[in-house]
Amino acid sequence: MTKISLDTARQIIAATRAAGRDLNLNPLSVVVLDTGGHVLAFEREDGASPGRFGIAQGKAYGAIMLGMPGSAQMARAEQQAYFMAAVNGVYGGQVVPVPGGILVCDDAGAVLGAVGVTGDTSDNDLKAGEAGITAAGLVAKG
Amino acid sequence: MTKISLDTARQIIAATRAAGRDLNLNPLSVVVLDTGGHVLAFEREDGASPGRFGIAQGKAYGAIMLGMPGSAQMARAEQQAYFMAAVNGVYGGQVVPVPGGILVCDDAGAVLGAVGVTGDTSDNDLKAGEAGITAAGLVAKG
Amino acid sequence: MTKISLDTARQIIAATRAAGRDLNLNPLSVVVLDTGGHVLAFEREDGASPGRFGIAQGKAYGAIMLGMPGSAQMARAEQQAYFMAAVNGVYGGQVVPVPGGILVCDDAGAVLGAVGVTGDTSDNDLKAGEAGITAAGLVAKG
Amino acid sequence: MTKISLDTARQIIAATRAAGRDLNLNPLSVVVLDTGGHVLAFEREDGASPGRFGIAQGKAYGAIMLGMPGSAQMARAEQQAYFMAAVNGVYGGQVVPVPGGILVCDDAGAVLGAVGVTGDTSDNDLKAGEAGITAAGLVAKG
């Protein structure tokens, strides 16, 4: 596989949402981006606040553009907040540097896309997204 | 019904995509927005170009914000191009004033959200979206 | 009077809305701006589409910034569309150059602020706004 | 009730302003947004500085988009400043994460809109807004 098909994207979203229910999380919003950072599929669960697309997309977009998952971006932001602020200037304010932005890789480590999850704590968002990616037979780098 | 649930949004997208196959259209991208113009769900079919989210969203967003479907926006743009250009300034460049931006209404005519379809001709995008909304038991105003 | 008080702004809005009812217009949205183009008061009638604040504000903002009501802006846009497009670049896309952006003046012709009305045809928006300004004992330049 | 009517929005603003006078606060500016974050009504009291619309709107807008009142946003900003900065990038710089951005809920806890108050200290802004929402028979989540 060199790219994520829509069927795979929908499978990742369904499995992420199922993990959210299993973990008893708040309503989740889940986006899947391609290797260019462009949206393939998105779903926002009933009860989530209206602005969740932007947060989900921002988590995944930063992961793609920097080749670095949300947890690594957060570490960098905690060491050097002005760097991540500058990165956001470069990318038009679309980067949300916290866990829940997850690279989707193949077995060889090649990046196929990214998933962004939001709605619960950042750590729980990450858990649900990793479960979704794994369920689709792919490798999560969160 | 006073709002579109995620299940209904997914049903609209599935039926719009099915209509696209029946009509033998190019790969479609379909977004469903809520009454505030915020994304509920989106899918981009395999083979569509990467920028399709923005076009789908722009068709549906203008319909919500102005209370006017894409075909009516196009008529206005053809009469008064500078007016629709100005509207786009007001809404941050997010309005795509052509058919395929469709209001989703209940039986009484209340707006519940909007659908944006892109990928084939604007008129075919509209046909597929109308079929999708109708299949979900709702009223399309395209 | 050298500026519009909040009481006067509310009076203008109430009288504009009353004129809308008398003229049997669609639900109106009405904004009053001060001499700096900043919002004093706004009301959006039930049934109006959600994006009406931006349109009302854009009509009034252009009137203030250029010292020229919406009808004069429209005449300029029809002669020289690229000029009004350039003006919109300068003012951050906040100018909507059609009737319904109305200067509010005192008896000596000094500008005290502007009113923006949207919801019906531009010409009807203008009629309602002029009635509202006149009812408040001020001079409308539409 | 599933949405805030203009009459209810005006009632909230009137009662918030009355609370400001009772508490002897500085001139207040008060906005009411719908469930999509779009402006229903706004008033700026005489003597307030001209930029108050943007602050009031930013307090209420963040509450709607994140489903989180200003006090909770402030707590998050104090723990993780770069996160709220990133959120502001996502929402176009329209989020003001301090008390005075208040969710308006029905008895069952469903969000009907948000109120933004500015002019005095953030804590006093919050008190006045809560009083206004309660006076209109709705539930404030501040």
TrEMBL record, chains A, B, C, D:
Question: This protein's superkingdom?
Answer: Bacteria
What's the protein called, per UniProt? Glcg protein
Transmembrane stretches, by residue range? Answer: none
Pfam families in the record: HbpS-like (PF03928)
**Organism from which the protein derives:** Actibacterium mucosum KCTC 23349
